[in-house]
Design goal:
Largest sheet: 5 strands, parallel
Helix content: 40-55%
Number of helices: 10
Radius of gyration: 17 Å
Strand content: 5-15%
CATH architecture of the largest domain: 3-Layer(aba) Sandwich
Structural class: alpha/beta
Number of strands: 5
Shape: globular
Distance between the termini: 38 Å
Order of helices and strands: EHEHEHEHEHHHHHH
Length: 209
């Protein structure tokens, strides 16, 4: 039996995923976490075989939680589930130690197979993600300005690209407007992209939003 921890801040999403997973007799969902902190705390005190975790959750996001989980148990397979296109986060999460990256759109068809592969010690990488990794290696890490950003800066960058205000971003990420403003300043310094409209255009041109 593969013991799975599900982490997603939407209860209805967790319910749907649990139903999909437990339709396979080899999988048992042992815990449902509503955020990254709950997932990390459970793994710190309990044994699980695979973690399936959303990347965008309030407070401690999926990328931060992923790094914490790998520090607690370097061998624990963590599959990252996201509504974002693969171009946005796939390379980042795999670099951080994830066992795979799956979009929520493809989850019903792929998630069970991904969990079984991760449980056996493999990496679940789609053809599209493999191509992204190949381009990433060929071009190098700093070929595009947004790749200079930290994970949290990149998250703020994408939300700015979607046209969200600093207040809206702060509410979505559970951080202060002042902190969001600090991230925006760092983004400008690192990328040289100085206006919100330019960030939006940049994201659209590179299919990041």
């Amino acid at each position: 039996m593969i013991r799975v921890l599900l982490a997603d801040d939407h209860k209805i999403v967790r319910s749907g995923l649990k139903q999909i997973l437990e339709s396979d007799p080899a999988i048992n969902v042992v815990f449902e976490a509503g955020n990254g902190t709950e997932a990390v705390d459970f793994v710190r005190n309990n044994s699980v075989d695979v973690v399936v975790m959303d990347i965008t959750m309030p407070g401690r996001n999926g990328l931060d939680a992923l790094k914490d989980l790998k520090r607690i148990n370097a061998g624990l397979p963590v599959l990252v589930l996201s509504m974002h296109p693969q171009e946005q986060y796939a390379v980042r999460v795999l670099r951080a130690g994830a066992a795979g990256y799956i979009t929520k759109e493809s989850a019903p068809d792929e998630l069970v197979a991904a969990i079984k592969k991760a449980f056996r010690g493999g990496k679940y990488i789609s053809t599209e993600v493999a191509e992204l990794l190949a381009v990433h290696i060929e071009r190098g890490e700093i070929s595009e300005p947004h790749k200079l950003l930290s994970d949290r800066e990149f998250e703020v960058f994408l939300l700015i690209g979607l046209g969200k205000s600093l207040t809206e971003i702060g509410e979505e990420l559970s951080i202060s407007v002042k902190t969001v403003s600090t991230y925006r300043t760092r983004i400008i310094e690192k990328t040289g992209i100085s206006t919100n409209s330019s960030i939006t255009r940049y994201c659209v041109q590179r299919s990041l939003s």
